[in-house]
Amino acid sequence: MKTKRVDVAIIGAGTAGLNARREAEKAGASWVLIESGPYGTTCARVGCMPSKLLIAAAEAAHNVAHAREFGVNVENWNVDGRAVMERVRSERDRFVGFVVDSTESIPEEKRLRGEARFVGPKSLQVGDHTRVEAKSVVIATGSRPWIPPQLDAIRDDVLVNDDVFEWEDLPESMAIFGTGIIGLEIGQALTRLGVQIEFFNPFDELGRFSDPKIVAKAHKVFGKQLTLHLKSDATGVEKVDGGYRIQWTDLNGEDHERVFQHVMSAAGRRPNVEALDLEKAGIPLDHRGLPISDPRTLQCGDTSIFVAGDVSGHRPILHEASDEGRIAGANAAQFPDVQATVRKTSLEIAFTEPQMAIVGERYIDLDPDEIAIGEVSYDNQGRARVMGANCGLVRLYGRKSNCRLIAAEMFGPRVEHTSHLLAWAIQEGLTVPELLEKPVYHPVFEEGIRTAIRNLAKELRVSGQCGPQDRGEGPGA
Ligand SMILES: Cc1cc2nc3c(=O)[nH]c(=O)nc-3n(C[C@H](O)[C@H](O)[C@H](O)COP(=O)(O)OP(=O)(O)OC[C@H]3O[C@@H](n4cnc5c(N)ncnc54)[C@H](O)[C@@H]3O)c2cc1C
Ligand SMILES: NC(=O)c1ccc[n+]([C@@H]2O[C@H](COP(=O)([O-])OP(=O)(O)OC[C@H]3O[C@@H](n4cnc5c(N)ncnc54)[C@H](O)[C@@H]3O)[C@@H](O)[C@H]2O)c1
């Protein structure tokens, strides 16, 4: 058994872990990066990148399927499933290759392969070969798909996102359990590529929207495009010749059954903590056994253990994993001089069509007495209509007390771009009148956002709490 002594031990060579080690290096600390799985990160191997590659193919198919709407007739087109998956895999491998090369360029003595677990607050066992004694530890172990109990009978056969990106060809059909971001992104893309997809969810949730008007719009729009069995749980699941039979009872109490070639779980992800023996780490844990950390420092209690990325449970998306890695890595290196960082405005985007975005806090977490709401429908918005993408609803929330834009829930075309503008405006603390002074070209999707901002300005005026002074319209203005 070897023993290694370092200032900072980082568990997990994903996005958060790689950023943590950069900060440890910058701070002049000695460090070691421990990884139990393949290098390459979840984002590049089985997450952001391959899912967007699949969506890009689906968009191409959708554009061809709808070309006739523009007077362009495309005859006898088809989807070559093998070619689709070949591109997904080869481009994915290219992205993964860059990350693997960069990770393998880290000097070998700073990399350990094997599963890490705590044997004490400052002591880790890696595999059966190395003991690491560290002044501080960064836990950056990511998350993994969860398979719900109703799939227990076929648990070993249930696919998760990782498996889809290994396919050599597209299947005929698949049942997807879960209508969150992963289910909708992958399921809608496969539907557009001609795979018969049906979604199952015992709950009524679609994505992460919380504003009832946006939720209703999303249900209406996705309800037309996708085969959704919401609030309908599977009553039976079994392996049969040619696939898996799912039995379910619909909202009207009627029983159904269908055989699918595959079954996939997209019912949420769980932080990777089981292997860590966290009870030996001496850190505060919640009722699920997950580390409790301060989102501004990522410190667990007052210990020298920090968490970063999906495992922290704060914001399980890529740019936040990078930020958390940096915060945790810097604080671990300079412990006990732990610095609090102001987090960026929260921004979540789902690459469905229409796209979904949540900027700032979700509507449900805002105090209804403190906000005014402005909205725009994209069902007839000029540029959206030009592009044949006229569908959606955007709602903006402004604070009555200071006229600032504070949050938005957005369902519509190209909101991946417009949501960035709003996130940047919110982070800069811009007021609604200040936003109305910004240039907007014609004809663009941003004109829809300007309409929503104008509506919000009107609502704030009606609320009577934003006087002319607050709106930048003081005497002489
Ligand atoms: C299908 C899908 C699509 C996504 N799309 C997007 C997107 O479009 N945009 C976006 O912002 N986010 C997206 N995400 C989320 C994003 O991928 C994650 O938030 C991000 O990759 C998390 O990074 P991480 O560093 O926390 O974890 P990871 O990259 O998973 O790294 C954790 C590492 O820790 C290792 N590990 C675990 N336990 C141990 C142990 N005990 N010892 C040693 N090593 C260990 C693991 O092997 C792993 O390599 C998507 C996720 C999925 C699944
Ligand atoms: N574009 C992006 O940024 C992107 C894309 C994919 C994933 N992600 C990240 O990955 C995280 C995980 O995504 P996800 O879609 O797995 O989780 P999620 O939490 O978004 O969705 C889980 C879904 O499963 C449903 N569900 C719960 N129990 C179920 C059951 N027993 N049977 C069937 N359905 C059930 C929920 O109602 C919900 O619809 C996201 O929150 C996001 O942070 C981000």
UniProtKB/TrEMBL annotation:
Residues 7-325 form the FAD/NAD(P)-binding domain. This is Dihydrolipoyl dehydrogenase. It comes from Persicimonas caeni. NAD(+) binds at residues 178-185, 268. FAD binds at residues 52, 141-143, 310. Binds 1 FAD per subunit. It comes from the Bacteria. Residues 349-452 form the Pyridine nucleotide-disulphide oxidoreductase dimerisation domain. The active site is at 442 (proton acceptor).
